[in-house]
Design brief:
Number of strands: 12
Shape: elongated
CATH topology of the largest domain: D-Maltodextrin-Binding Protein, domain 2
CATH architecture of the largest domain: 3-Layer(aba) Sandwich
Order of helices and strands: HHHEEHEHEHEEEEHEHEEEH
Largest sheet: 8 strands, mixed
Distance between the termini: 67 Å
């Protein structure tokens, strides 16, 4: 049974006329008639009966048409998806990122990319470090922003695209809110508002506090940057957040103070599955991102 026979069968069934089906398919009528006859012989079934100049489906032909419409419809959609997969101007980019990058970074780079490639679609996944790695390895996404960058992971590869400073985030009326910079150990007696277990910023803050000579006293754990920022602004404690997590149109804003001892940073990487070729459209986006962050770094260091 050939795919061509199935397409011919469906077209004849819809037109109920062999000549009209042949014209639609741009082939000779004899070729259509022959393929239908071969299909009936292979199945051992009569699919059509003659009705004047037209043809009509038999009951078993109607059953076959119903099944084939679903199968061939799925096949056509698959072909479209494969073409989009390879087309850098009309494909779909599947990318994951942590919640903290969804406030500014991801919308910013996507907007810049779409200026150059307006036909490209995006599918986004937000998640914590372990879930992003898992989604990538399962093939649910093709690229992921991740923090910290996994330096030694056999199944993923990529590059650090950004190293970002973390700031002390304080209530607006805090005694240190007006300082240009502070030592982290000046916050040793403060209640800390941290991300919950599993979020990559939590161990960064925790280890920085230990390096400064104290264990942070946690008053609240959250899962959203907006929640942590809002609770700090309301005077419920202090925290450490990257600069890009502090962009939000809200009247209730915490104070941001640089930490000079120790300097606290996080790496942000762009990763893909190791030893597996990216879809063409994702490769174009990856190249764009690497150039984008390289230019951004050059501007910052001028």
């Amino acid at each position: 049974m050939e795919l061509r026979q199935l397409y011919y069968f469906v077209q004849v069934a819809k037109k109920e006329h062999v000549t009209q089906a042949a014209e639609e398919l741009h082939v000779a009528q004899s070729a259509v008639s022959r393929q239908i006859r071969l299909l009936e012989e292979e199945l051992g079934l009569q699919l059509f009966i003659q009705k004047g100049r037209n043809v009509q489906l038999t009951p078993v032909g109607q059953l076959l048409l119903k099944r084939l419409e679903h199968i061939l419809g799925d096949l056509e959609r698959a072909v479209i998806e494969v073409r989009e997969f390879m087309d850098p101007e009309h494909g779909e980019i599947r990318i994951g990122f942590p919640h903290s990058l969804g406030i500014q970074l991801v919308p910013e780079v996507v907007a810049e990319f779409r200026k150059l490639h307006p036909g490209v679609k995006f599918r986004f996944k937000q998640g914590m470090y372990p879930s992003l790695i898992n989604e990538l390895l399962k093939g649910d996404i093709d690229l992921a922003f991740i923090s910290p960058y996994p330096e030694a992971h056999e199944q993923v590869s990529g590059a650090v695209v950004l190293t970002e400073e973390l700031y002390a985030v304080l209530p607006p009326n805090h005694a240190l809110a007006g300082e240009s910079s502070i030592r982290l150990d000046q916050l040793r007696d403060e209640p800390f508002i941290l991300f919950s277990e599993g979020y990559s910023l939590r161990p960064i803050v925790w280890e920085a506090c230990l390096a400064a000579g104290f264990t942070p006293r946690i008053s609240f754990e959250g899962e959203e940057t907006e929640t942590i920022r809002g609770l700090v602004a309301a005077g419920m404690g202090v925290s450490l957040l990257p600069d890009m997590a502090l962009y939000a149109p809200s009247p209730l804003q915490p104070a941001k103070v640089r930490i000079h001892t120790p300097q606290v940073t996080r790496t942000i990487g762009l990763i893909q599955r190791s030893h597996q070729k990216l879809p063409q459209v994702a490769k174009v986006f990856q190249t764009f991102l690497l150039q984008y962050f390289e230019m951004k770094s050059e501007r910052l260091h001028r």
